[in-house]
């Protein structure tokens, strides 16, 4: 049984690991499942063959036998459910880890994506400089709350889980903004995630595809 995921033929981030296939690669590396990657161009993502798998014409997708999935959260959850290593056995602890996955995607990531959009796509607008502090403060608000909850703990709720995988992945998108540096415990938390051998393997695998070539 071969697991096949999709990723950008060439990620716009040039190999920084910020495209969402890295989250899926990381989950598969954590549970020790081999996988293959089908690289897709922006054009191919909007073609019928890919749209049959992903109705919104995006990456990543996940195929395993007759199962086809899209949405990174659903894919990571599926991997975590089917294999040992990303969710605790205890039912309540498992529910808490799943809650953190949702919190990462539904509560922490939205203001971060708003900031990314403001920085990349709206910086040339006349109102951009006026709006930016509001957008940054919404991110700071969430980071402050998360920072207080994490405190001195290593991970969000006991042992490393799919909740941490998702939260670290979401926070990584903030690195370029410098905002993460305002919360030393969150910076250290993200660094712990990046130091995991499974993350390193996932990162290196996407870098091998996306590394900018000289010349
Ligand atoms: N909700 C979906 C999920 O979680 O799977 C969102 C999927 C998604 O946003 N996919 C993006 C995509 O396919 C790639 S990951 N975009 C192409 C399109 O919509 O046509 C988002 C992403 C893209 C680029 C960077 N980057 O360059 O830093 C980071 C993250």
Structure in words:
This is Glutathione S-transferase family protein. One of its GO terms (molecular function) is transferase activity. It comes from Mesorhizobium zhangyense. The protein has two domains: 95 residues, Glutaredoxin (3-Layer(aba) Sandwich); 106 residues, Glutathione S-transferase Yfyf (Class Pi), Chain A, domain 2 (Up-down Bundle), CATH 1.20.1050.10. Helix content is 56%, strand content 9%. It is built from nine helices and four strands, in the order βαβααββαααααα. The protein has a four-stranded mixed beta sheet with strand order 2-1-3-4. α1 links the parallel β1 and β2. The longest helix has 31 residues. 33% of the residues are buried. The structure holds S-(P-nitrobenzyl)glutathione (GTB). S-(P-nitrobenzyl)glutathione binds next to α2 and α4.
Strand order of the largest sheet: 2-1-3-4
List low-confidence stretches: none
Structural class: alpha+beta
The CATH topology of the largest domain: Glutathione S-transferase Yfyf (Class Pi), Chain A, domain 2
Q: What is the mean predicted local confidence, pLDDT?
A: 96
CATH class placement of the largest domain: Mainly Alpha
Please name the CATH architecture of the largest domain.
Up-down Bundle
Bound small-molecule species: S-(P-nitrobenzyl)glutathione
Order of helices and strands: EHEHHEEHHHHHH
> Ends: how far apart?
40 Å
How many DSSP-defined strands? 4
Radius of gyration: 18 Å
What fraction strand? 5-15%
> Any idea how many domains?
2
Helix content: 55-70%
Q: How would a crystallographer describe the biggest sheet? A: 4 strands, mixed
């Amino acid at each position: 049984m071969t697991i096949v995921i999709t990723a950008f033929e060439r990620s716009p981030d040039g190999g920084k690991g910020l495209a969402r296939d890295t989250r899926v690669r990381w989950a598969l590396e954590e549970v020790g499942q081999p996988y293959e990657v089908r690289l897709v161009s922006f054009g191919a993502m909007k073609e019928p063959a890919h749209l049959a798998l992903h109705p919104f014409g995006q990456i990543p997708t996940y195929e395993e036998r007759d199962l086809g999935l899209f949405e990174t959260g659903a894919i990571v959850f599926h991997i975590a459910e089917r294999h040992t290593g990303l969710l605790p056995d205890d039912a309540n602890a498992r529910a808490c880890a799943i809650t953190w996955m949702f919190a990462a995607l539904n509560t922490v990531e939205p203001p971060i994506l708003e900031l990314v959009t403001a920085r990349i796509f709206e910086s040339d607008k006349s109102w951009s400089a006026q709006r930016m502090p509001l957008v940054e403060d919404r991110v700071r608000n969430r980071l402050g709350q998360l920072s207080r909850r994490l405190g001195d703990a290593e991970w969000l709720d006991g042992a490393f889980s799919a909740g941490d995988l998702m939260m670290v992945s979401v926070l990584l998108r903030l690195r370029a903004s410098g905002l993460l540096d305002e919360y030393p415990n969150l910076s250290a938390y993200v660094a712990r995630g990046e130091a995991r051998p499974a993350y390193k393997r996932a990162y290196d695998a996407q870098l091998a595809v996306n590394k900018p070539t000289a010349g």
